Amino acid sequence: MLGGASLIWMIVLPFVASAVAALLPSNARNAEAWLAGGVMLVIFIVVMMSYPDIAAGNAVRQEISWVPELGLELVFRLDGFAWMFAMLISGIGFLVVIYTRYYMSPEDPIPRFYMFFLAFAGSMLGVVLSGNLIQLVIFWEMTSVFSFLLIGYWHHNPAARDGARMSLTVTGIGGLALLAGMLLIGHVVGSYDLDEVLASGNLLREHDLYTPILILVLLGAFTKSAQFPFQFWLPNAMAAPTPVSAFLHSATMVKAGVFLMTRMWPVLAGTYEWFFIVGLAGMITLVLGAFFSIFQQDIKGLLAYSTISHLGLITMLLSLGSPLGAVAAIFHMMNHATFKASLFMAAGIIDHETGTRDMRRLGGLLSAMPITATLAMVASAAMAGVPLLNGFLSKEMFFAEAIEHHADSWLDTIAPYAAVIASTFAVTYSIRFIHSVFFGKAPEPLPHEPHEPPFFMRLPVLLLVLICLIVGIVPGRTIGPYLHSAVVSVLGDSTPYYSLSVWHGFNLPLMMSIVALVAGVLMFLVIRTYLATSEEGPPFFRRINGQRIFEQVMVTVSWRWARFLEGWLGTRRLQPQLRLLVVIAFIAGILSLWRGPMLPDVKLPASSDLVFSALWLLGMACAIGAAYQAKFHRLVALMLLSGAGLITCITFVWLSAPDLALTQLLVEVVTTVLILLGLRWLPQRFQEVETPVQAFWAQLRRYRDFAMAIACGLGMAIISYAVMARRPPQTIADYFVENAYTLGGGTNVVNVILVDFRGFDTFGEITVLGIVAITVFVLLRRFRPAPESVGSTDQQRRQSADDPAAKPGAGTIASDYLYVPSVIMQWMFPVIIVLSAYLFLRGHDLPGGGFVAGIALASAFILQYLAAGTRWVEERLRVLPVKWIGWGLLIAAATGMGSWALGYPFLTSHAQYVDLPVIGKVPAATALFFDLGVFALVLGATVLMLIALAHQSIRKLRVAKTATLAEQEVQ
């Protein structure tokens, strides 16, 4: 008996192993295989050990509080149905790892494959074990991302890149629809907990939002399980390595859609909308997939379309709304996973040992590969539904349900005929595969001499085929108990009686099977000659190319429509875009005031401090001057803007907000220097000579922009004053002030709010800051200044002209012309380090904290770069800002997750006094570690942007050196 914690480790372990696999050397094939195989085997064993609880009808459940006030919790849940899928994922995943060890070439980047493979396995386990709808969607989208990486593993192959992009686009869009559907379900039910949702079937079916919910959820399921009209992405995904196809397209990714429909069956099924939408999509997919499969020349293409058809069969069974139909669907999910995984691996063996998958070039391989041929023929027979194999049992259950009456609809009337036709096609393409590959004339000269693969490459196929045989012969004793646990967990009290007997007598389902088998053989005999020489694809549908249609749609949406909208709404100038945003904001503000006026209760102050008023008049003058000078005098505008920022700092001090003042001051200093460094590389702007007409229109535009600025600025000032002047009877601020010390362990209310009460918000903000810093760095690495900005500035040229002893390129750094100040700037480095540590340690009780300390220490690095230059600093200091950003995020996240170990929600803080020798009692809070993460990330982000700007000076020196060498060569 295993506890709920084992569910967490089942999901975490593959991701940890994925990170380890990424660090292994490229030639560590055996180590990678042992790592991945060991992880999948451990998970398989853990799942097996949990079966006693599952068999007893219990669901293993583990909850981790995340944001409980919003109903967001990490919930992991293992019932019989999830247990069945976890067994398939881990068991087939283990066999695929063994197979991959012999399939992949030594030249392939094996660590990358196993990194993606393990991460995908963890994501898929997250889908089936999730007990929260939003959590399920997150893992759902993760499977789309990692399947994209696996399908595009051979990225040098254009077909792999196209197939991966198509897969991600289709399933990603479906995932967004699914997210919307889950949000609506949570809104209707009042909870995202899966158990509560499954108990609210009547509420959902009777709600007005049922139809939108159904459509959105089915969009997610249909795109994932390649149901019509989204089936086109799966055949194109066959460009992936065969182990990927054997894992993703048999037991995992394509099963996620039908898993979701089965999981939501108790709450969404049973209506006419469900019957018609799901039934129509499933029937079309079932028949068309089987028909298309017959005419494929690539073995994997045949198996891909047959997978689409079998997924359509499962979907059609789920559409019927009957409990027996759900039983048959669950049973066929298990059977299909076994015979289809073995067939994909057999196809990979044929390709690996012969060098081709084209059935027109193959034939007679039975003599060269007798064992592989036998295993593939048995698996194909299971796919065709031949008696004494597992596929026959679930197909019989399908026939039995198809002939029953479920609804007064033409769809229900034609269901038996569609079932027989699709089964006939299944027999035909199964025989076609067996005959074309293993019988007939000996193959023409092939890229490789056909021979049997290594034993361990064939072993996974052997084990899966044995399962097909054993389940087909004695289903009740082998698969029966596990199927029953899965069915009961889905249907509950509605579980019907069903029989897994091989023989039910001469009945209508058996007659339908016989008709399908005979008709399938006859159909193959009729079209055998045509198939041997025909082109790829079915007749009549050959010209309908799903990939071409997809590409045309993508070009239309992402290029033609985008160009149209850009031409209509877009502009390369920033000013019109800002004008549009300002007008929209102004209108939104006017509408808000119009509907709910805030101003009548606001009273103007009876008096005001003359000094404070003068201070603000000075700040407004700086702001207006900065706007006026911004176009042609950037340096002046920056100085005036800094003046406005300094006035803001003084205002915070005046209004008794020292924390804000300190933060504003340091941010103002750092951003001013960074912007000043950036201005160095912008091209100069000169006022153009205008005609009187041009001058008139330009003046008119300026007046218009000035009026808009005055209106919006004045409006924001009025709204801000109204908000600050009105004091509601009770605000959340009172709670923070009263509980900052007792609950957060600090007297600095602002800092306690940031790292404790609103720590989750801060965590999101520093994450965004890290992303922005990396984005700025990447963009500036590709930035190339204007040619006129690369050389020395006017000031540098004048200084060099006045100093005959000046070296070429002098004047770039402070030490070139301000030697004493540059030395003082360098000496300030340890002083600012001490100041930063002081600000950090006092932050929980006094003005300071991780953010301010990080900015302060970043200013020390800025001084070093300004004083001595980029090369001097980086030759003496190991500056690793990206690692600081990473460690900052990890420390902050680890602090939040540490509370889970003690049973508290994410980022729950604890504070107490610690008695230190000599020093005595000192306050200590776990929020200090979170603040340390904030400190590291802010420092790394600021320094990273500094480095991106500073490296422009290195590029300038390179350009100057290249120009000097060129002049010397000319001379």
Give a verbal description of the structure.
The protein has 971 residues and is mainly α. It is built from 41 helices and four strands. Strands 1-2 form a two-stranded antiparallel sheet. α2 runs parallel beside α5 (110-129) and α10 packs parallel to α15 (272-294). The model has no long low-confidence stretch (mean pLDDT 85).
Topology (SSEs and partners):
Elements: H1 5-23, H2 29-49, H3 51-55, E1 60-67, E2 72-78, H4 80-103, H5 110-129, H6 133-151, H7 158-189, H8 194-198, H9 201-205, H10 210-224, H11 233-236, H12 242-248, H13 253-263, H14 265-268, H15 272-294, H16 299-319, H17 323-354, H18 365-368, H19 370-384, H20 390-402, H21 410-438, H22 455-473, H23 475-478, H24 480-491, H25 508-533, H26 546-569, H27 574-595, H28 610-629, H29 634-654, H30 658-679, H31 692-725, H32 732-744, H33 749-757, H34 759-781, H35 787-790, H36 794-802, H37 819-842, H38 850-868, H39 870-876, H40 881-901, E3 911-916, E4 920-925, H41 927-970
Antiparallel strand pairs: 1-2, 3-4
Helix pairs in contact: 1-2, 1-5, 2-4, 2-5, 4-5, 4-12, 4-17, 4-22, 4-24, 5-6, 6-7, 7-10, 10-13, 10-15, 12-17, 13-16, 15-16, 15-21, 16-17, 16-21, 17-19, 17-20, 17-22, 17-24, 19-21, 19-22, 20-22, 20-25, 21-25, 27-31, 28-29, 29-30, 30-38, 30-41, 32-33, 33-34, 34-40, 34-41, 37-38, 38-39, ...
